[in-house]
Amino acid sequence: MKDKDSLKMLKKDYDNIKIPKELDDVVNDALNSNIKYRKYQNKMVIAASLLLVVLGINISPAFAQTLSKIPIIGNLVKIITIKNYSIDENGYKASIDVPKISGLTDKKLEYKLNSEFEKEGKKLYEDFLEEMEILKSDKVQGHSLVESWYEVLTDNEDLFSVVVYTHYAQGSSNTIRKFYNIDKKNETVLSLEGMFKNNDYINVISQNIKEQMRDNMKKDKNKHYWIDDEIKEMNFKFIDKNQDFYINKNGELVICFDKYDVAPGYMGLVEFTIPNNVIKPLLNK
């Protein structure tokens, strides 16, 4: 009964959306096409319909809210780029995408996440502008870049994992990442520490990573990690208790390191997939 009421609300919100004349013309042209072009017509109608849904989500908050409550359809409302901070001026270039998550029942969590996305994106852009002005005043030739974008890593019934990348380039380059793992059923942001019974996971996961490092270097001579080196201070010892991570599409824990964390720069961003049988006894039930 609730689903029927939601569908009625969806139809009402949908009908109240003002359709731009140009889009209306596209739909009418598709419907009035000669039967000879029926396949093309169908594609045009589908494309126009999808555009109407996207337009509805962005123009009408009520439409998006109702849509998110409809089974299956609601799963489409996940994450969009709500804003892009950009500049391209005499060798100084920035492009910063600000994501927005929607569809969570817990609106406080949704608001918290989106506020963080907006705050960090804005600060990144303002910091870049400030640095740009300093370099310009020092008559430094423009050769500075900052980019930020996001990628959905996992999206299933239980989990939504997204990573936000930030890439810097000025002479040398570096890329850092921030991960968000959302438990859909409990509507909480997972932390590595919170997934385990006690701190034993730190040593168990670290030892498994060391084994993988050594095995990878044996198989591929071009790979190198900071382990068993003569300079012991550089050697990888343990993960942080809240090390960056995500859960992949196979339900496996993936431990992540930024550039230079556990290997030379040419190794880039480094990840290790931890077998489920290694950590299963340590997990919270």
TrEMBL record:
It holds the Pfam family DUF3298. Coiled coil: none annotated. The chain crosses the membrane at residues 44-64. Residues 38-97 form the DUF4179 domain. InterPro entries: DUF3298, DUF4179, PdaC/RsiV-like_sf. It comes from the Bacteria. Keywords: Membrane, Transmembrane, Transmembrane helix. Residues 195-275 form the DUF3298 domain. This is Anti-sigma-V factor RsiV. It comes from Romboutsia hominis. The lineage of its organism: Bacteria, Bacillati, Bacillota, Clostridia, Peptostreptococcales.
